[in-house]
Inverse folding.
């Protein structure tokens, strides 16, 4: 049975065109600056985001942490949303690598507001760690975009305080698709941007960190310190070039299928779906706690791989929070299978957990 994996868009594998390009890639030693495919990828990525330069890195977490390492003096403070990826999913790396402390801000739907920022910005004094950077995320890993207006509010305050802004733009092309703008329109509101090639864009490995030339020159040194000098990495960059040039235009289909799945889920008794606008579907389901351990296996038996739900207690009942993610390898046939499995699994679990 062929499996359908909707845990994340990180599970995408390279297309046939990517595999061919990787096999035939013209390569050199990137630490010496001699890899022509890496150089082309970095130039293309910088141009697409309207930045002076870009740097290839192994992963999104690497790129974000490299940005903090480059922007921030040790012992300073970074302000960012309390649900953002840097806080929730990067293993506390900011304190280990950059030697900074992070200060989180309530950011509903990923939106940092001016008033919340202003209450936390700090200058250097005898007792306080001064703010050295503000971080944004767009699209947010909770499945929604942040408006350009909201980003402008943060940019204005950052300018007043003479602070840089870094964007975790792991899914910046999803955000641009949903907002109806270019990736450069989003990126110009920030001093540096990290974006992933290995999520919805379908490349197997890699991200880019983009910014001003002097920033990227410094980041290149810091990348070496972090162990990111990857020699003949053009084999990976070849897939990244196809990801950048051919796949952003395909993301609208992923978004469309996510909304279709969202609608189908809301028709199932007991399910309440949040409304997102990228390729993620978040939904909750209230049922007996003993169903939790059986759900993942129930989907797997139908050829579908999902993440285990998060559990929350609401008024004495157990609420299960799920995330399903559409991507390049989820087509119409896969959507039909997912929708049918959802109807079957959740009905069985509601009627009798032992049946699941």
């Amino acid at each position: 049975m062929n499996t359908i994996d909707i845990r994340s868009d990180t599970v995408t594998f390279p297309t046939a065109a990517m595999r061919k390009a990787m096999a035939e890639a013209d390569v050199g030693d990137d630490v010496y600056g001699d890899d022509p495919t890496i150089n082309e990828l970095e130039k293309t990525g910088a141009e697409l985001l309207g930045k002076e330069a870009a740097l290839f890195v192994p992963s999104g977490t690497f790129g974000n942490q490299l940005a903090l390492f480059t922007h921030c003096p040790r012992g300073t403070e970074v302000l960012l949303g309390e649900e953002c990826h840097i806080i929730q999913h990067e293993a506390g790396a900011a304190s280990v690598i950059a030697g900074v402390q992070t200060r989180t801000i309530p950011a509903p739907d990923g939106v940092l507001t001016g008033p919340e920022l202003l209450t936390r910005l700090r200058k250097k004094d005898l007792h306080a760690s001064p703010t050295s950077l503000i971080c944004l995320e767009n699209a947010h890993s909770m499945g929604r975009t942040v408006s350009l207006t909201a980003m402008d509010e943060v940019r204005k305050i950052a300018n007043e305080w003479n602070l840089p802004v870094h964007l975790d733009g792991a899914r910046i092309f999803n955000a641009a698709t949903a907002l109806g703008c270019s990736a450069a329109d989003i990126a110009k509101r920030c001093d540096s941007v990290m974006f992933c090639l290995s999520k919805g864009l379908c490349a197997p490995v890699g991200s880019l960190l983009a910014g001003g030339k002097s920033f990227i020159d410094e980041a290149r040194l810091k990348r070496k310190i972090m162990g990111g000098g990857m020699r003949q990495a053009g084999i990976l960059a070849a897939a990244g070039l196809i990801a950048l040039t051919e796949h952003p235009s395909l993301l609208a289909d992923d978004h469309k299928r996510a909304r279709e799945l969202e609608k189908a889920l809301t028709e199932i008794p007991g399910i309440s779906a949040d409304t997102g606008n990228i390729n993620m579907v978040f939904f909750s389901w209230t049922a007996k706690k003993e169903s939790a351990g059986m759900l993942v296996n129930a989907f797997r038996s139908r050829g579908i791989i999902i993440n285990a739900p998060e559990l929350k207690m609401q008024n004495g009942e157990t609420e299960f929070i799920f995330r399903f993610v559409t991507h390049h390898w989820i087509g119409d046939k896969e959507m039909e299978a997912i929708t049918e499995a959802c109807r079957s699994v959740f009905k069985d679990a509601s009627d009798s957990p032992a049946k699941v």
